[in-house]
């Protein structure tokens, strides 16, 4: 049995001194008490609920090292920087570091110099990493975004499956798993996959009492436009309108401007400056409405959003809850309205089918890859694969390639190493003009060995495949010099994809088809639940809470359209 090695009071003191907050949030208290009490803990708190502190504070309260496994490499550095700024000895390991840097950080962990070490999931099972972490022991293993371990979650990552083995190899430290999006099935799966021991499961904070939920069924698109304008008129601003495509986002913005709103569009297709400006305008209330794809919202915390309207449902209730939840962060009343048309489902089904292409198509693509590999092509693109197949269009090829990347058969080479090269002069002429010993000629010879005749038409070459002296950046510099002589034409290439194990046989049988099938089913199930939310007559608040597994007996107090309808004296029982 583990001893209580720190109390909640000590944890609170750390919160105040290191992080400057007066107290924990209700969900955090339960989670931190459970961790300090020595239990394996699964914490389900909504986005923005403060999950990071649930392991950062215990990491400081407990003796020894806390290892944090997180898939969000981009956020890792940020988190660590912030901790270091607060005087917490923390570091991260991921694929962006060179080997020396990795070694020095591991040495700090080994010598007991670090309190928190963040790792990408691919890193944790490295034998060197395990060996060196074992030396001083790992007190707590925190697994962030833990739903990634489950095929039933919407972001399954096979690399997460290795965390359990790594945890055994580390002597099975206490584990805290955290997620914002686990349904009961995913929660069970997380506990099984991570081999949690009698875990305390804490689901808190999903009930947002100030949010009012409503759905408007619309028989066609023009009715949706009318409903949009009507709903916006009926509610206070600022408002966010989410729409599924960039085209729709632009169209709705101008539709709303015609209706007298100060509305601007926000999506990933706009250039950075425009996007930045639009966001600013919304944050400072220069506009009252922003129409946006789901690219809008990440890291944006405007507390006084009064209405979030979805022009069409997202594919999961998780996504809906997260986006709709951007309303009313200040605690004052706010509205979440969904416009629903039965056909909205079809787009999502189409995407899901694209994500999980049928086996026959995957087989044809893999056979084509085999042929391409036998030839000189080292990097493949959807267009190239489609050309090499009898009956696979570019879009389907793209879907299969994406699947093969997710399954680890193909990978994206580092962007920098790919260059599209076309030879403009004959090798003989280049030799003559530069001299056979010129280092440029050497690089050209190496590229020629990779590409041969294809170089005359232009092809993508992975500079990492060149002999070691030239590999990577030196080769690029030499190619640039050749371009300046107008011997070659070069361009940054669409990176294309390469085989993860160039020598291994390519066989569709190597994919885990049962797992793929389960994941497809899980996606469809999530879509079913989203649709059921949109069409059911039960209390929408309890539907959402039931979905996430928080208690379902909350009083809605007329905080949704269905409860209002059923409490009207002449409500029908339909
Ligand atoms: P999550 O990972 O759950 O989305 P974060 O850990 O990023 O959430 O926290 C969201 C925000 O809430 C952060 O700005 C964090 O500093 C703040 N926060 C967390 N806990 C508290 C607290 N007890 N008091 C005040 N602010 C907090």
Please tell me about this protein's structure:
With 574 residues, the chain is an alpha/beta fold. A seven-stranded parallel sheet has the order 3-4-2-5-6-1-7, with helices on both faces. A six-stranded parallel sheet has the order 8-13-12-9-11-10, with helices on both faces. Strands 16-15-17 form a three-stranded antiparallel sheet. The mean pLDDT is 87. Bound molecules: adenosine-5'-diphosphate. Adenosine-5'-diphosphate binds at residues 21, 24-25, 28, 45, 47-53.
- In terms of DSSP E residues, the strand content is 5-15%
Ligands, deduplicated: adenosine-5'-diphosphate
Mean pLDDT: 87
Structural class: alpha/beta
The dominant shape is globular
**Which spans of ≥5 residues are poorly predicted at pLDDT below 50?**
none
Question: What is the radius of gyration computed over CA atoms, rounded to a whole number of angstroms?
Answer: 27 Å
Largest sheet: 7 strands, parallel
Number of strands: 18
Distance between the termini: 56 Å
> Helix count, per DSSP?
24
């Amino acid at each position: 049995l583990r001893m209580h090695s720190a109390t909640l009071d000590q944890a609170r003191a750390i919160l105040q001194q290191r992080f400057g907050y007066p107290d924990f949030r209700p969900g955090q208290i339960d989670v931190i008490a459970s961790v300090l009490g020595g239990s394996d803990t699964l914490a389900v708190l909504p986005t923005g609920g403060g999950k990071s502190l649930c392991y950062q504070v215990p990491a400081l309260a407990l003796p020894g090292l806390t290892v944090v496994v997180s898939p969000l490499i981009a956020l890792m550095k940020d988190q660590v920087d912030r901790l270091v700024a607060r005087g917490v000895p923390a570091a991260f390991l991921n694929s962006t570091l060179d080997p020396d840097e990795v070694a020095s950080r591991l040495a700090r962990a080994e010598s007991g110099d670090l309190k928190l070490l963040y790792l990408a999931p691919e890193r944790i099972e490295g034998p060197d990493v395990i060996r060196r972490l074992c030396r001083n022991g790992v007190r707590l293993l925190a697994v962030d975004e833990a739903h990634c371990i489950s095929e039933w979650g919407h972001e399954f990552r096979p690399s997460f499956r290795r965390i359990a083995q790594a945890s055994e190899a580390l002597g099975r430290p206490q584990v805290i798993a955290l997620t914002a999006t686990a349904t009961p099935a995913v929660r069970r799966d997380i506990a099984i996959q991570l081999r949690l021991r009698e875990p305390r499961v804490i689901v808190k904070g999903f009930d947002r009492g100030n949010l009012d939920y409503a759905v408007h069924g619309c028989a066609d698109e023009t009715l949706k436009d009318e409903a949009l304008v009507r709903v916006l008129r009926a509610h206070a601003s600022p408002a966010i309108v989410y729409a599924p495509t960039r085209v729709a986002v632009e169209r709705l913005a101008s539709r709303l401007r015609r209706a007298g709103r100060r509305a601007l569009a926000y999506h990933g297709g706009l250039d950075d400056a425009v996007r930045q400006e639009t966001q600013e305008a919304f944050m400072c209330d220069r506009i009252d409405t922003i129409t946006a794809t789901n690219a809008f919202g990440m890291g944006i915390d405007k507390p006084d959003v009064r209405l979030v309207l979805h022009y069409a449902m997202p594919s999961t209730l998780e996504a809906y809850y997260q986006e709709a939840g951007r309303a009313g962060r200040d605690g004052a009343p706010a509205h979440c309205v969904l416009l629903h048309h039965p056909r909205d489902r079809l787009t999502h089904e189409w995407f899901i089918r694209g994500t999980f292409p049928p086996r026959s198509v995957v087989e044809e693509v893999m056979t084509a890859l085999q042929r391409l590999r036998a030839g000189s092509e080292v990097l493949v693109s959807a267009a190239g694969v489609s050309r090499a197949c009898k009956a696979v269009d570019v879009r389907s090829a793209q879907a299969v390639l994406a699947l093969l990347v997710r399954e680890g058969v193909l990978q994206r080479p580092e962007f920098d190493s790919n260059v599209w090269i076309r030879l403009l002069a004959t090798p003989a002429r280049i030799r003559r003009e530069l001299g056979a010993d010129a280092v440029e000629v050497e690089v050209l010879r190496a590229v020629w060995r990779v590409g041969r005749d294809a170089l005359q038409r232009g092809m993508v070459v992975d500079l990492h495949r060149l002999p070691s002296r030239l590999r990577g950046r030196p080769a690029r510099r030499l190619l640039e010099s050749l371009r300046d002589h107008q011997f070659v034409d070069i361009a940054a290439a669409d990176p294309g994809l390469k085989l993860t194990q160039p020598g291994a046989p390519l066989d569709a049988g190597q994919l885990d088809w049962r797992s793929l099938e389960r994941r497809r089913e899980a996606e469809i199930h999530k879509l079913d639940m989203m649709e059921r939310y949109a069409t059911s007559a039960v209390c929408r608040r309890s539907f959402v809470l039931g979905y996430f597994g928080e208690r379902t007996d909350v009083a809605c107090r007329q905080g949704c359209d269905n409860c209002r309808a059923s409490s009207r004296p002449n409500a029908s029982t339909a």
